[in-house]
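Protein in question kept in full:
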Amino acid sequence: MLRLEPRPTPSRWWSYGSPLLALALTVLIGVILFAVLGKDPLRGLQVFFWEPIKSTYALSELGLKATPLLLIALGLAVCFRSNIWNIGAEGQFVVGAIAAGGVAIATDKDVGPWIFLVILLAGTLSGMAWAGITAYLRDKFNAGEILVSLMLVYVAIQLLGYLVYGPWKDPAGYNFPQTRTFDPSDLAPRLLAGLRVNIGLVIALAGSALLWLYLFRTRSGFAQQVGGLAPWAARYAGFSSRKALWVALLISGGTAGLAGALEVTGPIGQLTPYIPAGYGFTAIIVAFVGRLHPLGMVLSAILLSMFYIGGELAQSRLGLPKSISGVFQGLLLFMLLACDTLVNYRIRAGKAGT
């Protein structure tokens, strides 16, 4: 019988290299998968790892995809480091998009550029409020945040569907379930003419720097992490677990709502039923592949964005289903979990205790 035995001192270098090893194994399995599907493996790897970075336009699209993933992952990292499992960032993303879209719809063309800040604030506060429901139920009734936050995703999606199929539906939209397109003053400013990448990328990168300062240079950030690693020690030191719960979920909900606001005011420019793109769930992978560290999450957000774009290109150029990107994401997470397990445990033959 095979069993897992904890290693006395797990290798620090292997711990850091585990995501790279997981990526290498994912690529290897991807090559096998392409061959089994009758596709050229080299062409498949080119679509996933070269096409998204081969030109300025490709890099701008990569930055566009990475923006919501990074923003959501930053907030999730605070939760996970605090041992609070927010699985409902997708719902907070959708609610942030709804609030931002509502403000954009309510404005007219004569409003100045300042309205964009109001739109972002609306998205952020709405995401915080949606996450606050989970925090309240956990705080008052000890409801599991995993189940509550996840179920609220479906409530948010249904709310979006009601609005775009009902009261917010564009009367001049040929009966399509969508709102009117937003005015130019409501849209996120683009960084470069002719490219879709916008100020959201700058906000996400600035958020990474702020998160690093918060986690590693402030007492509040230290308290969040101590509460996650050693709850009893945190209580002994006078840190409030209740405060840690609210802080973690509000930060996470705020970044997800901000990501939703930037998404609808950026590449989409209106509300549609297709706002939920799975970013909230993919950001969980981004957070863990990036080791819950701001710099690591920047790199992992780029990688997962390549998977998103590669999946879209594989659909049009190789005739593969778009879900191939989800396959690569799942493989990466599975390989990371397997590598982390082997870094911390060794496989032994025999009965337990022998």
Q: What stands out?
A: DSSP finds 13 helices and two strands in the chain. The CA atoms of residues 195 and 278 lie 24 Å apart. Residues 241-268 form the longest helix (28 residues).
